[in-house]
Amino acid sequence: MLERLSDPRFKAISAPCKEAGMLAERVLSTNENPVFAEVGIGIGATSLALCRALDHRGSLWLFDFDNRVNELIVDLNDLGFHNVEIVGNSRRTFDSYGWTLAMLTRRAREQAPGGMFDFIYLDGGHVYQYDTLAAVCCKELLKPGGYLLVDDYDWTIAKSPTMRPSQNPSILLDYTEAQIELSHVEMICSLLLDVDPAFEPVPLGYLDVEHRRAYRKR
């Protein structure tokens, strides 16, 4: 998978998320062996950056489709990174990373009631039916003092070059006009995180359009 990082066809997703790197370093400044999680791996740019930041300490958990995480872990192992855990889901219609996170959350309530992760980067499908459950689980799986970074805060189906109705007319069979125009991630943040007193916003330095939003668990 990592060979795609140098493929011009994947240029838009070939650079690691700088905000994820910043928050990872913030955690590492006070915790020598943290546990990170990335939900939605793309082609592995941020996964690789997080492995390098950990520098063989702690662990990194990756959540995505089975074939993607299975392919990426081979590449990371080949580079000498063996502190990686993968949790894959199938491509069946109603399976998703939300389901695997839910199953993990149930186990964590017994085995790690104080939370599992010091930093979670949620960069999934950025649509309501997947990321609502994922956000609920991430809130619980995050340790006190940990950080949650949510990607695609400003993304909408209407803006998507591949999903917008002009390019994909069948999208109108799946989503209403409001669902196409509104940001699902912004709605999830406003409903589940912005109003939760257990979470405080973390400024990321945006002066105009907010592309990602971060929170710290009190």
UniProtKB/TrEMBL annotation:
The keyword Zinc does not apply. Gene3D superfamilies: Vaccinia Virus protein VP39. InterPro entries: SAM-dependent_MTases_sf. Pfam families: Methyltransf_24. GO terms for biological process: methylation. Keywords: Methyltransferase, Transferase. The keyword Transferase applies. It comes from Jiella pelagia. This is Class I SAM-dependent methyltransferase. It comes from the Bacteria. One of its GO terms (molecular function) is methyltransferase activity.
